[in-house]
Amino acid sequence: MTPIRLCITIASSCALLVNGLLPTTPIKTRRQSSLHLFPDLFSKQQQQLPRVQAPSNFVPPEPKPLAITEGTDLKEFATASAGLALRLATGAFVLGWKVDSVFFDDESRYALKLGPIRLRDSSSVLDDAARPSRTLMLYDRESSPSCKRVREMLNLLDITYEVRPCFEDTDTEFPVPFLVDPNADSTIVGDDDIIGHLLQKYGPNPDLFDRKALWPIEFRAFALTTAQIASALRGNPGKMQQPNARPDNASMKPIEIWGYECSPFVRPVKEKLAELGLPHRVVSCSRGSKNRDVMVERTGRFQVPFIVDENTGIEMFEGPEIVDYLEAVYTTKE
Q: By percentage, how much of the chain surpasses pLDDT 90?
């Protein structure tokens, strides 16, 4: 077995299990009302929302236990798993991850089932960290290594955020990534400054956690190099908009996606949302996230990816079927 195949095999196994820097200089922010940031590019979001509907007679698939199913593209799963390995599963666990119990007996709350074991986990440091009262908005390019660093940090801090996909030919006021934080009335530009802002405003007390947990993100050269390789393995998704994407996709209500950055099951769905130029709200669900309990309460199970599409009223599990659904609803038929 070659080293590459061994890496992919190990990463795939890890994925099945995982799924069930404060800066020394001041952070550069640009304070202005987020309602007036991009009047030209995104003004149509204020107009009447376009109407779309699910395909005729569409029935969401029944969720299946976490596994590689017949609908799984093995090449896609392998390259996504290789990306997980390259990034050392960064974002798979919340900051301060800890095991609370190995025999958790409350069936109404999330726990990882492994035979007789029901492993309950959480964060030892995020309970007292400030949470955004208003949703953060990230202007992001899916294939960008610097954007990936920001998305991983958002997962580590268990923050739900909204994404506005940008492409190489998108005309924006600032280079991506940039973050609009309505809670601070600020626009933060650049991955280093965004990460610093997130840690300062929404991170735990630095004395409460081991800074080594941040090194896969904080060591910038390593992060950018491995993220670039991971993106290249996937064909640099989201670099340009899909040619047959509906021209009004940017005006749709954000599609809610539950998942986390490094999951090879979530990755194809995130990429499809980006390539279609669809705004989406990412509900972070890394191991130890409180959002896992929220999903169990809402759906009776925990499994990602899971989407909620307010444009059509559809809620569904199963990554390959979600990708097919997005392709059917949000592309032109010409």
A: 78
Strand, helix or coil at 273?
Answer: helix
Q: How far is CA 22 from CA 16, 25, 59, 194, 195, in A?
A: 32, 9, 47, 10, 8
Tokens of 291: 């959002």
E strands within 172-329? 178-181, 186-189, 255-259, 280-284, 306-309, 314-317
Tokens of 310: 């307010």
Task: Specify the residue for token string 């809402």.
Answer: 298
Q: Strand, helix or coil at 209?
A: coil
Greater confidence (93 vs 20) lies with: 93
- Judged against a pLDDT cut of 70, whether residue 177 lies above it is answered with yes
Q: Percentages helix, strand, coil for the chain, rounded to the nearest 5? A: 35, 15, 45
Residue count of the chain: 334
Distance CA 197, CA 182 (A): 13
Report how far Cα 207 is from the mean position of its chain's Cα atoms: 27
Please tell me the pTM assigned to this model: 0.87
Provide the CA 264 distance to its chain's centre, in angstroms: 11
DSSP secondary structure code for residue 277 in this structure: T
Determine the average pLDDT of the residues in 40-61. Answer: 73
List all residues 6 or more positions away from 206 whose beta carbon is below 8 Å from its beta carbon.
Answer: 22
Task: Report how far residue 39's alpha carbon sits from residue 43's, in angstroms, rounded to the nearest whole number.
Answer: 5
Dump the DSSP string for 6-74.
Answer: HHHHHHHHHHHHHH----SSPPPEE---GGGS-TTTSGGGGSPPPP--PPTT--PPPP--SS--TT--H
